[in-house]
Amino acid sequence: MQPTPTHTLAAPPALAPLLARGALGSPRKSRGLRGADFPPPPPGRFARLVLPGVRIDLARLAAYERVCGFPTGEDAVPLTYPHVLGFPLAMRIMSGRDFPLPLLGLVHTSIEITRRRRLPATGEYEITVYVEELAPHRRGTEATVVTEVRDGSEGEGEGGFGGGAGVAWESRSTYLARHGRGEGRRRAAADGIARTAVGGSGTASGDRSGPAQADGGGLEEADGSGTAQAGRSGTASGDRSGAASADRSGWASEGLQAVPGVAEWSLGGDVGRRYGAVSGDRNPIHLHPLGARLFGFPRAIAHGMWTVARCLAEYGTPPAALVRAEFRAPVPLPGTVTYAADAGTWGGFELRSGGVPGPDGEQVRPRVHVSGHVYPLVG
């Protein structure tokens, strides 16, 4: 297998041209996926993009903190902010001609963030983004995109948790492209073997052929609830050995309400526009009802990463932490949602709203929009 090429950038890519390029190329890519077997990676695989010498715009950071509910003026950046720094690089890869999945309609289904040590807002960083793998999914194809932030430190992380090669922060985001598939692809997904590693050093495990969760794609199950993604919960492995297993019993996603909501949030219709302005993610489904209707949504929907950031701003995170979150159903704007959390039981949080009848016809089960876990990392 050919080595993954590395391209070093002199400046962050401009997002507007990338989004336009991705939109224009999406119809061609969608046609190529109709009834196709698992799309192979291009020759030489995808490039790793590296952006050195990154310094944080403090005014933009403060605006992000205000939109997401984080306290402003603290020395360390919020746990979710490096995702914003890496977003232009990810868009350059996913809008490229060689990336086989269409950018339009691509659904952010989950994210896993590992922070080994806090990142000072005044620091200088190197950001690396690459596609780790393509994987079959029962509703199409899923890509795993990795973002790494290096701070130049080779030592131990906070709490004794080591970080290799200066990686202070990293994330793995999964993005799903929905499409039909050929007979060979169906067999491969059933067997759980058609996975194609396309870059990076990580090794993924488990098959994502189960039901999807979605921040914006409406991939909830017919009863209005999501189904937890296999292979993303339980005890972390490898360098994530500090994470503990989680017992989800009694939570709304399991059809129960034993854990009460902590707060009720009223979300304005401008949440998507405000987050888009500070993050650069100006997907039309988040900005205005007219843009959302083009993709089948009656109203604009909140960014999945905003929902996670807002929950973590309320929940809090230790200096060294592993966070896993799954996007289950879109959050319509404007709207009212309930934030639920229990750090003592299983270290998790949920954002939910409304309710649908439970299996017994009497119990009311809220619709879960996002669910996540927070684990402290220990040596």
Automatic annotation (TrEMBL):
Low complexity: compositionally biased ranges = 230-251
Pfam annotation, one family: MaoC_dehydratas
From the UniProt annotation, give the residues forming the signal peptide.
Answer: none
Tell me the segments the record calls region Disordered: 179-251
**Which InterPro entries does the annotation name?**
HotDog_dom_sf, MaoC-like_dom
Q: Where is the MaoC-like domain?
A: 273-312
Domain of life from the UniProt record: Bacteria
Basic and acidic residues composition-biased segments: 180-189
- Recorded family membership: Belongs to the enoyl-CoA hydratase/isomerase family.
Identification of the protein by name:
MaoC-like domain-containing protein
Q: Which organism is it from?
A: Streptomyces stelliscabiei
> What lineage is this protein's organism placed in?
Bacteria, Bacillati, Actinomycetota, Actinomycetes, Kitasatosporales
